[in-house]
Amino acid sequence: MKFTIVSGSTRQSSQSIKVSKYIEHILGKKLHEECYLLNLATANLKFWDESFWQEDPNKFDANWTKARNEINNSDALIIVAPEWNGMIPPALKNFFHLAVKGEISNKPALIVSVSASVNGVYPITELRMNSYKNTVLCYIPQHVIVRNVGTQLNDLVSPENEEDKIIRERIESSLKVLIEYAKAFKTIRSSDAVKNFPFPYGM
Ligand SMILES: Cc1cc2nc3c(=O)[nH]c(=O)nc-3n(C[C@H](O)[C@H](O)[C@H](O)COP(=O)(O)O)c2cc1C
């Protein structure tokens, strides 16, 4: 199966891309799944404007077309969301304004939030509340908060403290659950009830 990891920070050398690359490493090397890493710091996705409402979704932005082709072929997503002023960053919000044409619909997703200190809850509540209605993304109940991220996941193999060891266990266990959801959601996406759901904008 194929997994898309969205690294939600637009800062160069962000902690989110470090966390995303660790997840890519575990998914690819240890769990033997295919990964596509969308780094919002380098993807240069155009911000939503009214030209998005033209009929052909591929005419909006060449960078988004490239990304959406990869995401269309994915079975599940991992959203890596740093906490910025108690929110997700604007580029990540923009991603959810673009991914409303079936790219991520009825696909399971794991949220991994990132905080330089002991916060990290706000991105989870914001994503769970606001990002699923028109995208039809399905967040699994498990999530991960990488707190004190500066001292976590700095080496792909060796943890540097007890917290680092535990967060690695949480990440791997949560990815294993996501893989099971991804298998089951193939059946869900192929069902007539889901394919023919007549209310594309939810309620
Ligand atoms: C604009 C901005 C606002 C931030 N606000 C918060 C915050 O509200 N809570 C928090 O725990 N960390 C906050 N941080 C620190 C981030 O958690 C920290 O930068 C961390 O490394 C994750 O972001 P990154 O992936 O961009 O590196 C903020 C960082 C930035 C750039």
Can you tell me about this structure?
It contains six helices and five strands, in the order E-H-E-H-E-H-E-H-E-H-H. It has 203 residues and is of the alpha/beta class. The protein has a single domain, classed as Rossmann fold (3-Layer(aba) Sandwich), CATH 3.40.50. A five-stranded parallel sheet has the order 2-1-3-4-5, sandwiched between helices. The chain is globular, with a radius of gyration of 16 Å. Flavin mononucleotide binds next to helix 1.
Write out key terms for the chains shown.
single chain; 203 residues; Rossmann fold; 5 strands; binds flavin mononucleotide
Number of helices: 6
Q: Which fold does the CATH topology refer to?
A: Rossmann fold
Assembly context of the chains:
single chain
> What is the residue-mean pLDDT, rounded to a whole number?
97
Count the domains: 1
C-alpha end-to-end distance: 31 Å
Number of strand segments: 5
CATH superfamily: Flavodoxin domain
Contiguous low-pLDDT stretches (5 residues minimum) are none
Strand content: 15-25%
| Cofactors, ions and other ligands in the entry | flavin mononucleotide
Q: Work out the helicity level.
A: 25-40%
- The structural class is alpha/beta
CATH class: Alpha Beta
Largest sheet features: 5 strands, parallel
Radius of gyration: 16 Å
Instruction: Describe the global form.
Output: globular
Q: In order across it, which strands form the biggest sheet?
A: 2-1-3-4-5
Summarize the helix and strand pattern as letters. EHEHEHEHEHH
What's the CATH architecture?
A: 3-Layer(aba) Sandwich
Short description:
Helices cover 39% and strands 17% of the residues. The chain has six helices and five strands; from the N terminus they run βαβαβαβαβαα.
